[in-house]
Design goal:
Elements lengths: L6 E12 L2 E12 L3 E5 L6 H9 L6 E6 L7 H6 E4 L11 H11 L5 H9 L14 H14 L4 E5 L7 H18 L2 E5 L3 H4 L5 E6 L2 E7 H6 L1 E7 L8 H5 L2 E7 L2 E7 L9 E3 L3 H9 L19
Parallel strand pairs: 3-7, 3-8, 5-6, 6-7
Antiparallel strand pairs: 1-2, 1-4, 8-9, 10-12, 10-13, 11-12
Helix pairs in contact: 3-5, 4-5
């Protein structure tokens, strides 16, 4: 089980450059143990780099990171951390059963029942060679290998991308069960925001290699207001809207929509409400979104 007195992942001015290009820079995060974290952002935002740094597969160019109070890549950190990367680095020539056997021999914390539970949801024949499986079934095998290790920190890079909707539902259920039963901290990147928001309690949004938003999901949403109205009223905006930072606004047909940081009191004929997490993230990711929104540390406290 995770210790309760240390963060599952903590970074301090963490950065990684490839040549002259920075994939991640000035990353300050504190993710509480036992949380389920959605890592969002466009392609090239630095999500995979952050996960690989946390797993110890990359070394920082600047700053440092800790996982469960340990330096990523050290023996104890590797034993308690599992990463399922986008390319699902399995052994294509092995059968599914042989893949799990390799996992058992290489990991002292191995739990065969936990690994088999993932495979049973897809009825994967153990004698099938991994290289002959569909991308979705390879994802299941990779996830089975990761959960079989019984990690305290599970890092998943686009685990839902190759899965159809029923399979995504099953996989999300497995992840939530592991989090509930063992307190496993789960950090996963995904572009499927409407499904990911059903299970995450924390969110980290990266854009151009920097943290744009971070914190508990619900407080981040309530710290913003979605405002909608007819375009013929756009020239007469609510007074509060002119005084608060507008993250992003748009006009679709005859409807004006804006996402604002801060509370906007109801004002006829404008409609105001708390945005969904998907709406919040899409607004902050929009090319025209303002970039002055402060990123709050994901400490488990109310933050925005």
């Amino acid at each position: 089980m995770n210790e309760t007195n240390c963060a599952a992942l903590r970074t301090d001015a963490l950065g990684r450059a490839f040549g002259r290009t920075w994939a991640l820079r000035a990353c300050d995060l504190e993710i509480p143990a036992g949380s389920v974290v959605l890592l969002a952002g466009p392609n090239g935002a630095g999500k995979s780099t952050l996960l690989h740094l946390a797993a110890g597969l990359l070394t920082p160019t600047t700053g440092h990171a800790q996982v469960l109070g340990r330096t990523p890549g050290t023996r104890d950190a590797r034993a308690r951390t599992a990463l399922v990367a986008q390319d699902k680095p399995l052994h294509p020539g092995l059968t599914v059963a042989e893949q799990l056997r390799a996992g058992r021999e290489l990991n002292s914390r191995w739990d065969q029942n936990a690994a088999l539970a993932v495979l049973r949801t897809a009825d994967i024949p153990p004698g099938t060679r991994v290289g002959r499986l569909s991308p979705g079934l390879r994802t299941r095998v990779a996830l089975a290998t990761a959960l079989g290790r019984r990690p305290d920190l599970l890092l998943l890079d686009e685990p839902l991308a190759d899965l159809d909707p029923p399979a995504r539902h099953q996989v999300l259920g497995l992840l939530m069960a592991d989090n509930a039963e063992r307190g496993t901290t789960i950090v996963f990147s995904s572009h499927i925001l409407h499904e990911a928001e059903q299970i995450c309690d924390q969110v980290v949004l990266l854009r151009q290699g920097r943290v744009r938003l971070a914190g508990p999901a619900q407080p981040l949403c309530t710290a913003h207001t979605a405002v909608t109205g007819r375009t013929d009223r756009a020239g007469h905006l609510p007074a509060a809207l002119t005084a608060l930072p507008v993250v992003e606004s748009s006009i679709t047909g005859r409807q004006f929509t804006a996402l604002v940081r801060g509370p906007v009191p109801p004002e006829e004929p404008w409609l105001t409400r708390v945005p969904s997490l998907e709406e919040l993230l899409l607004a902050h990711l929009h090319p025209t979104a303002t970039t002055d929104s402060a990123a709050a540390p994901a400490t488990g406290r109310d933050a925005a």
